[in-house]
Amino acid sequence: MVEFLRFRDDEVSESPAVTVDAFGEQSNAGAVRIEPGDDARELLPHLAHITRVEVNFPVFGDGRGYSAARILREAGYEGEIRAVGDVAVDQIAYMRRCGFDAFEPEKAMNEADVKTALERWENVYQKTVDGRAPIWALRHGSADA
């Protein structure tokens, strides 16, 4: 069973994450937790000092965290973005496409199911932050699209 999944080789401090609101008062904190309704753009001026961003998914159907991850990646954030909470195996491939590189689900996932979910589609259709070229770009000879 998978209780924690990470796609990074670097070391990340496991110090407690502070909320976005508390980060303003504790700007020396290395980890920040984004809750639904928080604006990830508030962190943009501080990205060089943040080593880990946890994005909370309190319920399966709340997709706001996908946008938070993409905003941070498109702004150049290279630290860990960890999905925590009600994270299901069928979300992992999409979360990876948006920039998540670590997962801490509240319920353990079957390892074979995780592998299947990540390997299901060889090609993708949308351009996003994971670096994979969309199929239409490959068909037209442009892997940089």
UniProtKB/TrEMBL annotation:
InterPro entries: UCP030820
Pfam family, one: DUF934
Protein name, per record: Oxidoreductase
